[in-house]
Design brief:
Elements lengths: L4 H28 L10 H31 L6 H19 L1
Helix pairs in contact: 1-2, 2-3
Length: 99
């Protein structure tokens, strides 16, 4: 069974979207109610996380669409190992930005 790497990219993109939306909702609450989470994490820390995860969503979804289209048009043309290595590097970059 061949792994559909494009769908994996799209799944990670969907998770990134949900995380970005959660950080955005928290940032909105902190912006409206300045005392909410003031001592733990503030708007200054939440906004870059929100923006980063939403940008990762766009980029990962674009990669997933391109890989899905390529796998549909030329099934044996994509190296699954290289595509999985690319996804792993994306995950390492996301973890680096999030910490």
């Amino acid at each position: 069974m061949k792994i559909h790497v494009g769908k994996l990219f799209l799944l990670v993109a969907l998770v990134s979207l949900v995380v970005g939306l959660m950080f955005g909702a928290l940032a909105a609450q902190v912006y409206v109610f300045p005392t909410f989470l003031k001592n733990t994490i503030g708007f200054v820390a939440l906004r870059p996380l929100h923006v980063s995860f939403v940008i990762f969503w766009v980029l990962l979804a674009a990669n997933g669409c391109v890989l899905s289209a390529l796998q549909a048009l030329k099934p044996n043309h994509i190296s699954t190992k290289l595509a999985l290595a690319q996804l792993l590097l994306w995950l390492v970059a996301i973890a680096g930005v999030a910490t």
